[in-house]
Structures are given as C-alpha cells and as structure tokens.
Write a structure and sequence with these properties.
The complex is a heterodimer. Chain A is of the alpha+beta class. Chain A is built from 11 helices and 12 strands. The chains are: A alpha+beta, B mainly alpha.
C-alpha cells in the first residue's frame, strides 16, 4: 500500500494541535479584553441611579467627611459603596418621607426583613435542637389522658414532674388520634401523632404548677384532656423520684421485655448472633442496604421493631426478623427503646473495645445470654428506687 | 330648536321577564342562578349562626349551661362545615361569579347554562344531606375531618360528601 500521507504530515498535525490550543487561548484572551474594555464597561458614561445622590450637596454643602461613608478607604484599594444603614442614620430622621429616597428606604426594609428572618431561624434551631444533657421523658397520649414515663420508671398520668433549671426533652407518641402537647407558660406546643415520635424540649425556670392542655381536637373529652406540669426544686424532685418507680427503671422494664419478646435470641451482645448487636446502637449512624446512612434514634428503633424489612443495616437479611406490629403497645416499645439506649454509651463517646468493660452508666456486656444484663444503678441502689 | 330624543326605557328585565316558581327553578339565566345562590347561602348562614349562638350561650358559665360534651362537639363541627362549605366557599365564586363575571367579560351567559343550574341542585343536595345528618346523630370530627380520628375513633358516622361545581 502506497504511503498516502507524506512524513511531514506528522509535524503538521503536531503543530496544528499546538496551534489550536494557542488559538483558543488567544481568542479567550481577546474576548476577555473586549468584555472588560472601557467601551464595553461604559466607563465614564453616567447612568441613571436609583437615588440621585449628590456629592456636591453632602460633602461640599454639609461638610460630611469622605470616610463617614467610604469607611474602607484607608485600608483598601478602593472606596467602598456605603451600606443603606449609613444613609438611614440621618434619613430615618430628615427627609424621612421624601419620595426621592424611596429606594433607600425599600432597601432598608429588605434588610429589616432579613434580620427578622435570621432571628426567626435562630429561634427555630433553638427549638428543634434540645441540649445534649437534656433529660428524657416519654409521653404517650391517648383518648383522653397524658401518660408520662421517666427514665427511672416513674409513671404518671395527667401530671408531669420536672426539676427546675434542667432541660427536659419529651419524646412523644399517640396511641390513637392526633393530640397536641401545649404548655402556654413554657411557650411550647407540639402535635403528638400516632405511629411517629415527635419531640419538644423545655426548661422550667421557676418552681410552680403549670397548665398542660391538649391543643388538637381529639374527641368527646378533648376539653378535659388537661394536665399539670409540676416544676420542682431539684432536691424535691429527687425526693419525688425516689417515691415512685415501683417496677424498676424504664430500662430494666425494657430489659425484661427484651427477653420476654425474644429479642435476645437473635441480638446477641457479642455480635455473633443472627441479628446485629444492639450495644452502642443508639445515636450511631447506620449504613443501610440501599446505601443510605440513617441515625439510630428513637424513631429508627421503633420503625425497626414494627417494620424490620425497611432500612436494613448492611450485611443483614431483611426477612429474618419478624414484625412486632400489633404485638407491642407504645409503652412496651418505649421501654425497649430505653433499654437499647441504656446498653450503649451516650452519643459522642467511644465504644468499648472488648466485652466485660463498663458501658455507660448501665453495667457491662454479658456475652452469655442466660444471665440477663442488670443495669448498674439498680444493683448499686437496690433500696432507693424500688 | 331643541330636538327631543326618545329614550327607549326597557321595562322588562331578568326579574320580571318570567314569573312563577317554575321560572326560577328551571332558569338558566346566570343572574337568576346567582340569586338562587344568594338565597341558599343565606339559608345555610342562618343555620351556621344558630349553632354558633347555641355554643356561645352554653359558654356563658365556666361549667357550661345547656349542652353536653358530645352535643357541643357536634355543634361546632356542623357550624364549621356549614360556614366553610355552604357559606364561605360558595359566597364569592358562586354568587358574584354567576351574577357579575359574565357581564364583566361581556359574555351573554355562562358557557353551559344548564350545567350551571345543575351545579346549584347538586350544591343544594349536598347541603340537604349535611343538614339531614344532624337529625341522624350528627358528626363530631370537626370540619377538618382529621384522620385517624374521623376514620377510626369517632363515635359518629362520617358522611362522605362529594360535589363538583
């Protein structure tokens, strides 16, 4: 086959490659020059301004220092354009309704609205994020009563005892219809939904008795679904706690259920069982089969108990665990969650390296399931809360 | 010399062109249908107001004067349903929409005058069923019919109402 291209073709191709790169660069550079040229930028051409500001009047007539408006001129390459606030320093008082200054006022109003927005969003984040050291209280609403359960196992109906000065995080669910937890004195109101946890937190500042209302119409005796919040001195609160809790702490009740309902048969603490170990589960991010990452909070654990085939952690089969829908009531689920919370460290702390080490506040790991886990505070204080 | 112009004063209008009950109930005139709506929402407004009045009387004393819990709940439910669905919503679109809007856009009438009349009958049917429900025990779900209260837990029957304009 005869040579179609001469040998010089190689050099020409290389040159043209180089040339095209150079050409593109040259064109971009020229384009940049043109776009930034004084002609394109309309330099020196006065344009209509929204506000006909007169330097002659402000500087020449009134004698205002240049630096009053152009504040950066001494430490910057260019003189900044002053913010609306600078204009409004004077013009909120003088010429306050002059039509010619309307754009200034409108700009100022925008700033005011943004300020309100940021104030509002700050409040929102404050409401939505309870402090880390908040004390958990579990609330189950049903037609027509408020049931509250403390971590120590103390139960109450239509009353809620809380210590003064401590953040209280309410983890709430409804057993039937939509209710709403409303304490006007604390400025909190949160809908309580069936089938889903909602939370709200508050901190009582003064000891006293505060009204609790249901603020979502829930049936015949909705107007009687009223309770009282008793905000107590921490010492009195401690006394009150010790009077209650006949059945042991919420976590120990949960531990009982953990064995009674057969959870312990699969969820071994060693992690070698058919199900994942639940030690240290609470508050941990879980990598699911679908590749998503979810935080193992109360809602996650509740959903896993009732609907195990959703959001399965990676490496586990969806079909192994039976559903407990219809077999557990909200109180039992709450106790189980409190137990699962208790067998792990608090969020943010490190996991223990081996079995036998102390876990959080609540006793050690028991690889042998014939012996149930005993929460530490129960053994340490046998007479106190019983 | 002044010229006298004869103004032809029209003496017949939509009100006296035809008379009699039948001329109202079978009319396809948008103005007359607009008036039908005015009368019917006034009728429903009276009922809604009556229920509100009973509730306010009940609330004269802190413990309540004349009603039981369930009756009270049924009353505010019916008050809400009637005021929202049979007064507020029909008021502007149906009365003003029927009476004024065709004139504003220069149309002779609505596009489907018989369908327009049919809408009023269906509206009245819905209202009658709602009022009838009171005599059969009433509804206590609130006008929002929040689930799951309205579907599972309410002690009363919820009548499903549908109507199209």
């Amino acid at each position: 086959m005869p040579q179609f291209f001469p040998r010089t073709a190689n050099a020409i191709f290389r040159l043209s490659l180089l040339g095209s790169v150079l050409f593109v660069g040259l064109v971009s550079w020229l384009g940049f020059l043109i776009v930034r040229s004084p002609y394109e930028m309309m330099q020196e051409i006065p344009r209509p301004q929204p506000v006909p500001f007169s330097h002659k009047h402000h500087v020449g007539g009134l004698g205002i220092d240049c630096r009053y408006c152009h504040t950066t001129v001494e430490d910057s390459w260019f003189a900044n354009i002053p913010p609306t606030k600078t204009c409004m320093n004077c013009h909120s008082q003088m010429w306050a309704v002059a039509p010619v200054l309307e754009p200034v006022r409108e700009s100022y109003r925008t700033i005011v609205f943004l300020a309100i927005f940021f104030y509002g969003s700050r409040l929102y984040f404050h409401i939505e994020r309870p402090p880390d050291n908040a004390e958990d209280v579990y609330v189950v609403a049903k037609q027509w009563m408020w049931k509250a359960e403390h971590v120590g196992g103390q139960r109450e109906i239509d009353t809620l005892h809380v210590p003064v000065g401590r953040a209280i995080r309410l983890n709430m669910i409804s057993a039937d219809v939509i209710h709403s937890f409303f304490v006007p004195a604390f400025r909190i109101k949160q809908d309580v939904l069936p089938g889903r946890y909602t939370t709200i937190w508050f901190r009582a500042d003064l000891p006293g008795t505060y009204h609790l209302f249901c603020a979502e119409y829930c049936g015949t005796e909705h107007s009687h679904m009223i309770g009282w919040i008793y905000a107590m001195d921490p010492k009195d609160y401690q006394l009150w706690l010790e009077q209650g809790a006949a059945e042991g702490s919420l976590a120990s009740t949960g531990e009982k259920y953990f064995h009674q309902f057969g959870c312990a048969n699969c969820h071994h603490f060693t992690g070698h069982g058919p199900g994942p170990s639940l030690v240290g589960l609470f508050g941990r991010p879980i990598q699911t089969e679908e590749g998503r990452i979810v935080i193992a909070d109360e809602s996650y654990i509740r959903n896993k108990i009732l609907n195990p085939s959703a959001k399965v952690p990676q490496g586990f089969k969806a079909t192994v665990m039976p559903t407990f829908k219809g077999q557990l009531n909200e109180d039992e689920i709450t106790a189980l969650i409190a137990y699962i919370k208790a067998i792990g460290p608090r969020p943010g702390t490190e996991l223990p390296s081996g079995p036998g080490e102390q876990l959080g506040d609540y006793g050690g790991v028991e690889p042998d399931l014939s012996e149930p886990v005993t929460p530490a505070h129960k053994t340490a204080n046998p007479g106190g809360v019983q | 010399m002044a010229t006298q112009t004869l103004v032809d004063v029209q003496t017949t209008n939509y009100l006296n062109e035809k008379t009699g009950l039948a001329s109202w109930f079978f009319t396809t005139d948008h103005k007359r249908i607009g008036l039908l709506y005015v009368f019917s929402i006034t009728f429903f407004f009276f009922f809604g107001g009556l229920f509100a009045l009973l509730m306010r009387i009940h609330l004269l004393t802190p413990r309540g004067l004349i009603l039981g819990d369930e009756t009270y709940n049924k009353l505010f439910t019916m008050h809400g349903i009637i005021m929202v669905w049979f007064f507020l919503i029909p008021s502007i679109p149906n009365t003003l929409g029927n009476f004024v809007l065709p004139m504003m856009i220069g149309a002779k009438d609505l596009a489907f005058p018989k369908l327009n009349l049919l809408s009023w009958y269906i509206f009245m049917l819905g209202g009658s069923v709602t009022l009838y429900a009171i005599t059969r025990g009433g509804v206590d779900t609130g006008w929002t019919f929040y689930t799951p209260f309205s579907t599972l837990y309410s002690t009363t029957y919820v009548i499903e109402r549908r109507w199209e304009f």
